[in-house]
Write a structure and sequence with these properties.
- By secondary structure, the chain is of the alpha/beta class.
- The protein is 34% helix and 30% strand.
- It is built from seven helices and twelve strands.
- The protein has helices at 21-33, 63-75, 77-85, 94-99, 195-198, 200-215, 224-245, and strands at residues 4-10, 37-43, 55-58, 90-93, 103-105, 111-113, 120-137, 141-155, 163-165, 178-179, 181-183, 186-189.
- The strands form two sheets. The chain has a six-stranded mixed beta sheet. Strands 5, 6, 7, 8, 9 and 10 form a six-stranded mixed beta sheet that branches.
- The model has no long low-confidence stretch (mean pLDDT 96).
- The protein binds glutamine.
- Glutamine is lined by residues 17, 60-63, 66, 94-95, 148-151.
- Belongs to the CobB/CobQ family. GatD subfamily.
- Its EC number is 6.3.5.13, 3.5.1.2.
- Substrate binds at residue 128.
- InterPro entries: Class_I_gatase-like (IPR029062), CobQ_GATase1 (IPR033949), GATase_3 (IPR011698), Lipid_II_synth_GatD (IPR043702).
Length: 246
C-alpha cells in the first residue's frame, strides 16, 4: 500500500495570488511521482482541521485578504506553532510569511499581529518592491522567483534569512539584502512565481522532511515512468529558471 502524505493548503480562498497555488500542485505531483499517496486538505476560515498534517503551504495575499483571515489564523496559532516546533515543514509566501512573523503594520496604519513562528516584523511603505528576483542560498543554490509587496520585513537577531539578494531595493526590505526567513523547517519568503515549479530543490526538501517525520525515512519507490516524468519536470524547471534569471 502506498504511504499517505497529508498536504495542507492554508487559506487558498484568500491567500493565493501570483499563482501561489502552483506550489501545492508541485508538491502533490512530486509526492505522487516519488511513489507516495498525497492527500490534499484545503483549509479556509472556519473549516475543520484535518486529523493529520505533514506539510503546510500558504500563499500571498492583498492586505485585505490578510485582514480577512487573521482571526482564524489566531484561532489556529497554537496548532501551527506546535506543528512548527515539532518539525513540520511549512512554506509561507509573502502575505502569510508576514503573518507568521511578529506583526505587519500596513501602509494605511492598520496593525495585524502575527503568530510569531518566525522572528521577523513588517512595516508597509508606499513604494512597492516589485520584480523578478534571484537570491542565493547555501542550502538550495540560486532561488528564482518574483516579488511584489509593500511590506518591508526585518529579521530579528537569530532568525536566518532564506537567502541573499544582490541589489538594493529588493528582498525583505530593500536595505539589508536578506530575503525570506527560515526557522527549523519553516520557510517564509516573498518569492512568488510560483516558487516551487522553478525551484524543485525546495519542493524536494519540504517533501523529504515531511516523509521522514511521518515514516522515519525517505525511500522513494518509483516506476521507470515516474522517474522519466520527474526528469521531464526537472528539465522544464531548468528552462523556466533560465528564462526567469535572464
Ligand atoms: N499585502 C502584503 C504586502 O503588500 C503582501 C502582498 C503579497 O502577498 N504579495 O506587503
Amino acid at each position: 500500500m502506498e504511504n499517505i502524505v497529508d498536504v495542507m493548503s492554508l487559506y487558498p480562498k484568500d491567500m493565493n495570488i501570483y499563482g501561489d497555488s502552483g506550489n501545492v500542485l508541485v508538491v502533490m505531483r512530486r509526492l505522487a511521482l516519488y511513489g507516495y499517496a498525497p492527500r490534499l486538505h484545503a483549509y479556509n476560515q472556519g473549516d475543520d482541521w484535518p486529523e493529520h498534517v505533514d506539510i503546510i503551504l500558504g500563499g500571498g495575499g492583498q492586505d485585505t485578504g490578510q485582514k480577512k483571515i487573521i482571526d482564524d489564523l489566531f484561532a489556529r496559532a497554537n496548532q501551527l506553532r506546535d506543528l512548527a516546533a515539532g518539525g513540520t515543514p511549512m512554506l509561507m509566501i509573502c502575505g502569510l510569511f508576514q503573518l507568521f512573523g511578529e506583526y505587519f503594520e500596513t501602509v494605511d496604519g492598520a496593525r495585524l499581529d502575527g503568530i510569531r513562528v518566525l522572528g521577523a516584523y513588517t512595516v508597509g511603505q508606499e513604494k512597492r518592491m516589485i520584480g523578478n528576483l534571484v537570491e542565493h542560498s547555501d542550502d538550495f543554490g540560486d532561488i528564482i522567483g518574483y516579488e511584489n509587496h509593500s511590506g518591508q520585513t526585518f529579521l530579528r537577531e537569530g532568525t536566518a534569512p532564506l537567502g541573499h539578494v544582490d541589489h538594493d531595493g529588493t528582498g525583505n526590505n530593500g536595505e539589508d539584502h536578506t530575503e525570506g526567513a527560515r526557522v527549523n523547517n519553516v520557510i517564509g519568503t516573498y518569492m512568488h512565481g510560483s516558487l516551487l515549479p522553478k525551484n524543485p530543490a525546495i519542493a524536494d526538501w519540504l517533501i523529504r522532511q515531511a516523509v521522514i517525520n511521518r515514516y522515519g525515512e525517505f525511500e522513494p519507490d518509483q516506476t521507470s515512468e515516474q522517474m522519466f516524468e520527474m526528469a521531464r519536470l526537472d528539465a522544464l524547471a531548468e528552462e523556466a529558471r533560465k528564462v526567469a534569471a535572464a
